Amino acid sequence: xxxxxxxxxxxxxxxxxxxxxxxxxxxxxxxxxxxxxxxxxxxxxxxxxxxxxxxxxxxxxxxxxxxxxxxxxxxxxxxxxxxxxxxxxxxxxxxxxxxxxxxxxxxxxxxxxxxxxxxxxxxxxxxxxxxxxxxxxxxxxxxxxxxxxxxxxxxxxxxxxxxxxxxxxxxxxxxxxxxxxxxxxxxxxxxxxxxxxxxxxxxxxxxxxxxxxxxxxxxxxxxxxxxxxxxxxxxxxxxxxxxxxxxxxxxxxxxxxxxxxxxxxxxxxxxxxxxxxxxxxxxxxxxxxxxxxxxxxxxxxxxxxxxxxxxxxxxxxxxxxxxxxxxxxxxxxxxxxxxxxxxxxxxxxxxxxxxxxxxxxxxxxxxxxxxxxxxxxxxxxxxxxxxxxxxxxxxxxxxxxxxxxxxxxxxxxxxxxxxxxxxxxxxxxxxxxxxxxxxxxxxxxxxxxxxxxxxxxxxxxxxxxxxxxxxxxxxxxxxxxxxxxxxxxxxxxxxxxxxxxxxxxxxxxxxxxxxxxxxxxxxxxxxxxxxxxxxxxxxxxxxxx
Length: 545
Description:
Layout lengths: L1 E4 L4 E4 L7 H4 L6 E4 L3 H10 L3 E3 L5 E3 L12 E4 L15 E3 L1 H14 L4 E9 L7 E7 L2 H10 L5 H4 L6 E6 L6 H4 L6 E5 L4 E5 L5 H18 L3 E4 L1 E4 L5 E6 L5 H5 L5 E4 L2 E5 L2 E4 L3 E5 L9 H6 L5 E3 L22 E5 L11 E3 L1 E8 L9 E4 L1 H10 L1 E4 L11 E4 L12 H15 L2 E6 L2 E2 L7 E2 L2 H12 L8 E3 L6 E3 L7 H4 L8 H23 L4 H4 L10
Parallel strand pairs: 2-3, 3-8, 5-20, 6-7, 6-11, 9-10, 10-12, 15-23, 23-27
Antiparallel strand pairs: 1-2, 4-5, 8-9, 11-12, 13-17, 14-15, 14-16, 17-18, 18-22, 19-21, 20-21, 24-27, 25-26, 28-29, 30-31
Helix pairs in contact: 2-4, 10-11
């Protein structure tokens, strides 16, 4: 560690030769903390009363007003590079170039007289796609989050480190919507031409990592012919890779955490040629209702270096009560991926043999496991279906459909059909199996039926991974057209076809038609750009007797 005093500022830490703070416009900074260790950043956060140490040694912080992403306040600069390539709409909201420049200058001026925390890191575990980043933070714990979540350069690489993208993160800076062009005082804006992300008015750390995920979701498919994916991935003892897609509440984290398989990553990956690779150097896990029994890997990762967000302590102690959601249901923990024991070497694997689309179907319609052909895989990928049940959001009293394109719509700068067609191409070239797995209800909809047993779901996934479903007999679902296995090891056969589990079979048919109509209604927004193979795979409403 070096401590440099010059006419510009005090600098503490390891500074690369590419110190470009002046070129970025920073001036009159009181102190710069550069590439400090998590231990040092934790100590600073505690000394500044920005966090406390838990009984396990992790740092607990409060992100302030915002405890989650603010999708309506995420923008992309619309310019020559992006105007005809970005999928503009409610997800990718355009922002004027001139407004970005003006707001950028205001943020730079906001830092006058302040100390900042700088982190040099990268995204993508494969050298060919590595994206060098420089993250500049107002708060020490935000910088520690960047250290946890991105990939750290080797000591030998630091001196010559040259950033391609910059993230400037100023939670204390508030925009003026009437002048700055934002919706409200908080914002996250991506500028693909200037290779810059500016974040202000929010302390929620997830904006930092999701910003870079959005960047890679543009660069990799658009410029590198590489499929980017919001998924978890693991690899078995024989080198067989599996990918798990799924929205919140579907079991993605739980089902991909397999003690017999090594974790490639838990959230964001790329797939090029014969390689699936992690974007990140860490994990950012939900921890509401966390227990050692349910999630031992996450539980054991909450130690010095980890950051807990918006958790509540037991009275008069520094012991976290993970059942409490006083601040938010979205309590989180970030930690380096090497805090988990069974990690895939190099955070990468070979071509996947199996892909799982996880859905929690609260209508009790979809089979607990079914096999998809190429067209169906692309259709269900674009759909990104799950269901919300009573209690998950205000006003929800019965199950409602929820669709998120490619299981990650908020982070897709390109049209969803681009990602779906790339997936179809990958399926053809790799001969991968694609499975639709319903972790939701059986025997009827939510309120009548019951949640699929986790032991059954694990058994079905294990059977698929081990090839035990390769040569069994299948039947075709009349509405959705997917292939349902007749038998599966360690699963009662009557469970496999959902209609068999309903007491009233005609009620099942009605509900299946209803869900099909919801799927088709959602798909209309993509139909214009979808190829014939995709829209022909849509479910077919059947005539009821």
